[in-house]
Amino acid sequence: MPKADLPPRHPAAALLVATAAAVAALWLPATALADGPAPATQGAAHAHGEPALAWSVPATIGTPTARHENGMAAVDGRLYLVGGRGERPVDVYDPATARWIPASAPPLEIHHLQAVAHEGRMYVLGAFTGGFPEEQPLTHVLVYDPASDRWSQGAEIPAHRRRGAAGVVVHEGLIYVVGGNTRGHMSGYVPWLDVLDPSTGQWRELADAPRARDHFHAVVLDGRLYAAGGRRTSHDTGDTLSMTIPEVDVYDFASGQWQTLAAPLPTPRAGTAAVATDGRVVVMGGESARQVPAHSEVEAYDPATGQWATLQALPRGRHGTQAAMLGDELHVAAGSGDRGGGPELDDHHVLAR
Q: How much of the chain exceeds pLDDT 90, in percent?
């Protein structure tokens, strides 16, 4: 479908588009591939006159438990750091007290996840359990209730759609799972998109993404799901890290159709964290075959301009963790400092103006 059929959803964004041809230039059909990496502009200020975004280390009491391949979600104004390789507690950060405190561990080892918040609870699905290289997908959704500090078992995940290292988002009360890998780090990467109604436990299969990917995080911005970063993990063929994906695929919830951005991710890598903030999709960290240290790049895509910008790099590169928003502040904690499984980090950084 040409981009002309998908006008920008935000009225202010429409003012930035001079002609229908300019709108079309922001997108390619799902079957088309970009010719090469699009240059990312430098600078952390989103608009003229705004203070630049910069990283800082908050003064906290306590630190999060060192871990990697974990998730983190913001629930009712607090951060909940969850999972990772091995048995790890939930760590809770309360900005009102600046304290990190431990909470109840999940009922089993969970890792390679993107945790999401829904109606005051944290949901875990699209995750793995067990050891490398053929980790097993979870069979059921796991739900954590911060009010009671208790875990419960949610809906069963259909056996033929189970996978981990998937992107997970919430949109209008429904939970969407995109991509992932059915066989851990083996060649079980899939392009699937599924939606769960947490109020009924019912699943629906939706249109496949244009390409399979795993080891990435998805975001929702202006009624669209963005799948950026990741790779096709294939340890059984010797391609554990190398098949990274530069293309960014976008699903429109209203039309039920996929498109591929004309502007690919400037630095292809997997194991990234991603958030939507300030009208942009922000992708940070990651790992790839090109370097041993984890990536520190932070790159932001603006749908209004169709361009990527380079923000201030992470103070310490990392992969295998999740970022979350508390108000206007972007928080990231834990992860692995090098590609693979270590060193595990126990730090906490904030990106804000």
A: 85
- The CATH number of the domain where 313 resides is what? 2.120.10.80
Q: What is the pLDDT of residue 51?
A: 80
> Looking at the domain assignment, is residue 6 inside a domain?
no
CB 284 within 8 A of CB 323: yes
Task: Tell me if 310 sits within 8 A of 40, measured CB to CB.
Answer: yes
CA distances, 32 to each of 3, 197, 261, 333 (Å):
13, 32, 9, 36
Whole-model pTM: value is 0.89
Kind plus residue range of the DSSP H or E element containing 205: strand 202-206
Q: Which amino acid is at 59?
A: A
Which residue range is the domain that position 314 belongs to? 38-352
Confidence bin at 39 (pLDDT 50/70/90): low
**Which candidate, 67, 75, 113, places its Cα nearest to that of 341?**
67
Distance CA 91, CA 73 (A): 11
Residue 14: inside a domain, yes or no?
no
Task: Measure the CA–CA gap between 214 and 191, rounded to whole angstroms.
Answer: 9
* CB contact at 8 A, 333 and 326: no
Residue 5 maps to a domain = no
| Rg of the Cα atoms in the chain | 19
Residue 43 has pLDDT above 90, yes or no: no
Positive or negative: CA dihedral 260, 266, 271, 275: negative
Tell me what pLDDT residue 270 has. 98
DSSP class of residue 33?
-
